[in-house]
Amino acid sequence: MTVCVVGGGPAGMMAAIEAAGYNDKVMLFEQNEKLGKKLFLTGKGRCNLTNACSVEELFANIATNRKFLFSAFYGFDNSETIRFFNDRGLETKVERGLRVFPVSDHSSDVIKILRRELERKNVEVYLNTKVTKLLTDEISGSISGVIIKHDNKTKQITADKVIMATGGMSYPLTGSDGSGFGLVEALGIEVKTCEPSLVPFTCNDKDITCMQGLTLKNVGLCVSKDDKMLYSGFGELLFTHFGISGPLVLTASTCIRQSDYRKGLKAFIDLKSALSFEELDRRILRDFEESRNKNFSNSLNKLLPAKMITAVIKKTGIPADKKVNSITKEERNILCRILKSFEIKIDGNRGFDEAIITRGGVGVSDIVPSTMESRKIKGLFFAGEMIDTDALTGGFNLQIAWSTGHLAGRSR
């Protein structure tokens, strides 16, 4: 059997490695000059290759179509992923949130393991090679090969099986430009609308963007649209020159659809999540007692980071130069409400250029979950971010790539 794998990312490399285990002729086509270009950037170059949680928690962290991944995860779960790399010489470590990284903190070491395995399995790797068309047999309708373009030359490759693993649309400069979707749509396969996910939020409030560089830890975040709660969580966020980012914001973005950004989308930060409203009020009273003869603007240093004080004061409507000893109970209650629910109007996100993953892709109803084969085109398989399934941060999206790639590669 001849197998063509389209895409040299994590899912494609894993699929090619597994397919080559059956002594098939396997060819891997990558349009970039090297394999794993996007993988190299993951985890800020450290490669959070999976998560060491239980399988139950693995499923709980899938945001879209988790049931579809049942066979893929149970066939090759996170413990198998760790074992795969450990057995081939990559030492790993577990960090906060059970995130798994190479001990070396170098994503290049993960790619080296995969490249070495491809060589060991005699996979034919073709770099700077773009697949321009998928071919099907006119009589049976099954896959029959691909047309590739290399060095401005076009060539037809006959194949019994084609695995599509071209990624989504996030970080398009790495080659994840959505071109693979066009190839399968040409065969009549439905592709769900693609949207950026795990992506920072933007806002046009200068009081917010002026706080760039400020990180808040252990805060609560709620996101709502027209008073309907879309997300609620706890963790760390970062103010930037364009809005807000950080793990908490990226996670929240998985619950926000592109249409939600058009109007009415708001984020509310609980700056003092460890304190109840009453406890916070007592804390403020103590601070005010120590600063009773100071201006209001000079009384919040113990309560807030310096970069936040101006924005908070503006939201309260209390004059910055008002003496603390003349602040009323009603004004103090307003301050408490602001601190427990600091409002930011969200007007958009940073798009595919900064999105970690893509929501959308080939619809799971068109894919056999036990094999990753297309229900419409026999011999055509899918793996990784091309499929309409995505997860939260923490190594879960890469686990989807490893698991679906492994399953697509071994399915006959």
Would you write up a description of this structure?
It is a single chain. The protein is an alpha+beta fold and 412 residues long. The chain has two domains: 2-196 and 359-410, FAD/NAD(P)-binding domain, CATH 3.50.50; 200-350, Helicase, Ruva Protein, domain 3 (Orthogonal Bundle), CATH 1.10.8. 28% of the residues lie in helices and 26% in strands. The chain contains twelve helices and 22 strands. The protein has helices spanning 10-20, 55-60, 70-75, 78-87, 107-120, 179-185, 206-209, 247-253, 277-290, 306-316, 329-340, 396-410; strands spanning 2-6, 25-29, 50-51, 92-95, 99-102, 124-126, 130-136, 143-150, 153-158, 161-164, 191-197, 201-202, 215-225, 228-239, 243-245, 265-270, 342-345, 348-349, 357-362, 367-368, 373-374, 380-382. The strands form six sheets. A seven-stranded antiparallel sheet has the order 17-16-13-14-15-12-18. Strands 6-2-1-10-22 form a five-stranded parallel sheet, with helices on one face. Strands 3-5-4 form a three-stranded antiparallel sheet. A hairpin with a 3-residue loop joins strand 14 (228-239) and strand 15. Helix 10 (306-316) crosses helix 11 (329-340). 44% of the residues are buried. The model has no long low-confidence stretch (mean pLDDT 95).
